[in-house]
Amino acid sequence: MRAENSRAPSVKVLQITDSHLRPNSGQRLLGVDTAESLRAVLAQAFGESTPQLVVASGDLAHDPEVRSYRRFLAVLREFHQGATLFMPGNHDLAVPLARTLPGPDSIALGDWEVVGFDSHADDRPEAELTTVDLAALQDRIAGSTARHLLLACHHPLVDVGCPWLDKDRIKNGGELLEWCVGNARVRGVVFGHVHQVVERRYKGITVLGTPSTCFQFAPGSARFAIDETTASRQPGYRWLELQADGTIVSVVRRVTDYPLNIDLSDRD
After folding, report:
1. pTM of model > 0.70
2. In angstroms, how far is CA 126 from the centroid of its own chain?
3. pLDDT tens-place string over residues 172-218
4. Is the per-residue pLDDT at 240 higher than 50?
5. Nearest Cα residue to 116 out of 149, 80, 74, 158
6. Which of 22, 107, 145, 146 has its CA 20 to 30 A from that of 71?
7. Three-state SS for 31?
8. Helix (H, G, I), strand (E, B) or coil at 14
9. Per-domain residue ranges for the chain?
10. What is the CATH number of domain 12-256?
């Protein structure tokens, strides 16, 4: 299903990802109240600008219950009533997410269409994009009438340099990117999952990973490790300005004054 919006010379998009909400107020994950860190992210972001679209790219819940998704929506709606793409991540379950956070899987805005696709499989950390899924996505891309396209999903399409994360990336992500190279309208891909900044170019296609709204993983880590570096450990989000000529201008921002007190004994 595709939602239409009015034409605009450029499009402002806010990407948030990996919020890992718990079902009950006050519950924490690794010592972090993830609902409050999400609220802090949204308060800062919406104090900076008003997006035409919010992309929520997976792991919206840590405990994939209806109550967790209702909490996510309640926090989001404190700041944003407009267009949103909700995509599941590996911690999400498809049915309760879809029931609680319904919406289109792509949104047309001005010269652009933002096309979300599902890279997750319930109860599995690794990505799943079957040949059938890939063909269906290619058909959606080919059938779009937009001048420019931005793809959005949860799992990365490329290695990010963390072996414990790279093993779960989209295995045929390279095939998808190569196909997109042949479709000049595909300008970029954004994803979550890796809890860190990734900024690459793949044969002219912008490939962007975005930090979590709670804690971050250590870049370059061989196994699970939390980022404790002052400049990159804080909750984050990504602004994307999609320009009429197909250019993507992007910046990652951090909530630097959020009290992030990590407790690794809380790991489940």
Report:
1. yes
2. 16
3. 999 999 999 998 899 999 999 999 999 999 999 999 999 999 999 99
4. yes
5. 149
6. 107
7. coil
8. strand
9. 12-256
10. 3.60.21.10
